Amino acid sequence: MPYLDFHGASIHYEFHSTDSVHPPLVLVHGFLEDKRMWENLLPQWTAYGSVLTVDLPGHGATPSFGYEHSMEFMADALYALTSFLKLKPFLLLGHSMGGYVGLEYAVHYSDQLASLGLFFSTPEPDSTERKIMRDRSVALVKQNKNTFIRASIPQLFDPNTREAIKSDIDALIARALQMETQGVIAALHGMKKRVDRSSVLYTPPDNLKKSGIAVFAGVYDTVVPFDQVKQWWGAPGVTFRYESPHGHMGHMSDHEGCANAVLEWWRSVTKTKA
Phi, psi (5° rounding) for residue 40? Predict the structure, then answer.
């Protein structure tokens, strides 16, 4: 598996290179996930262009780097990788926590981007209640990481679809159980301390004003409630919207809809860059 040395550790990734002239698509997974979350969607996307998947610090094959993985730190790691691969300009699609990382990337490295996609994610910081929940989660992980993972992951899914995709949920849990305890804790600390990046949607960086920002949201998302999304759904910087009839893990329960929506966004960005 290819990797890039970053701060003395290895950032693991897979680059699905094609002969396409379209800007590449960079996929950033969420909390308790890794680059394998995109496997079922890749065939449709790689038929259109090159795709990069990455394991963020503390996830998948990439080790932990310390007590806390801030969103900015993970964006820095991603910048090191995309610069090494010379991908500029590219589309960045981040799921949940991956969207938080994408927003930091847009703030600090916007010149690298052709467009940004928030995939069941939000630019808003944790509420006071949510921060308390993060602290409780850290305490539980320290006590028993596996119990935390087994209890947390099913809650990410729309109750109406859990049984239908139970085997996929079980596989996701099995992969997450392989994570280092410190990797889980470091991400929880980083998410708790992230700042409000709503400004990226309302006053996007100059090079994103034309191609804009894509928002993919789930009607039954309990992590990023759709009512919350609708508050910034119409922000000036948002130029592409997809409303999934499922929950936070739409890429698994709304596989075809999400695959097609991302491809539609990718094609629309390609046209603006032509």
Answer: -75, -15
Contact 72, 197 (CB under 8 A): no
Q: How does DSSP assign 84-131, residue by residue?
A: HTT--SEEEEEETHHHHHHHHHHHHHGGGEEEEEEES--SSPPPHHHH
Angle, to 10 degrees, between the axis of helix 181-192 and the axis of helix 71-84? 110
How far apart (Å, rounded) are the C-alpha atoms in residues 86 and 109? 14
Type of residue at 84: F
Q: Give the amino acid at 39.
A: E
Confidence at 271, pLDDT banded by 50, 70, 90: confident
- Determine the Cα–Cα distance for residues 213 and 273; give it in Å rounded to an integer: 14
Place of tokens 């981007």: 113
Distance CA 253, CA 215 (A): 18
Exposure letters 42-78 (e unless 16+ CB within 10 A, then b)? beebeebbbbbbbbbbbbbebbbbeebbbbbbbbbbb
**Number of C-alpha atoms within 13 angstroms, CB side, residue 101?**
29
In DSSP terms, which residues pair with 119 in a beta bridge? 95, 216
Domains of the chain: 3-273 (3.40.50.1820)
Q: What is the pLDDT of residues 68-123, one digit of tens each?
A: 999 999 999 999 999 999 999 999 999 999 999 999 999 999 999 999 999 999 99
Please tell me what DSSP assigns to residue 272.
Answer: H
Neighbours of 8 (CB within 10 A): 7
Which tens digits make up the pLDDT trace of 52-62?
A: 999 999 999 99
Q: Which two tokens stand for residue 204?
A: 């996007």
pTM score, whole prediction: 0.97
Provide the CB-side half-sphere exposure for 84 (13 A, CA): 16
